[in-house]
Amino acid sequence: xxxxxxxxxxxxxxxxxxxxxxxxxxxxxxxxxxxxxxxxxxxxxxxxxxxxxxxxxxxxxxxxxxxxxxxxxxxxxxxxxxxxxxxxxxxxxxxxxxxxxxxxxxxxxxxxxxxxxxxxxxxxxxxxxxxxxxxxxxxxxxxxxxxxxxxxxxxxxxxxxxxxxxxxxxxxxxxxxxxxxxxxxxxxxxxxxxxx
Length: 196
Hints:
196 residues, alpha+beta, Protein kinase-like fold, 4-stranded mixed beta sheet, two-stranded antiparallel ribbon, 8 helices, 8 strands, 43% helix, globular, disordered C terminus, protein serine/threonine kinase activity, immunoglobulin domain, ATP binding, a-kinase_dom, transferase
């Protein structure tokens, strides 16, 4: 948990260094640090400690296909979190995605990281690869993506879907096969009794 959150925090620092100087970008989301504490005299010898976040706790990004939070589209923090995800995705060539972004305002905690099956530069995430596929399919760029000059994922995803649908168009479908059968081969099935 500490390794994942602090790895995401390092990406967030680099993102902030690129985004903050841009005119009109404003405040950037920050992933708060989390620390592992060893307490040898306690029944539970290890614990994590982090800053307490006070205020309305909001989930800004999608963690699975069932969970959709519209606040991410409507709020500045939500849009900047989605842009951060897009930025990380692009910087890692689609191999890594910081996900499950949640917190209070621009302060985030308890994030997750999804990586491709082989990982990314020796790092394996704690979330399913399907989060990367889902992000690629659902992400809608916003003005902050444009300010950072990020490439639209829509065109890439649409090209992949178009290539897949072109392949399936070349395969015969059941109606084509049915029409190709001689009439005598179809007749017995047309008159099967339903009295059984």
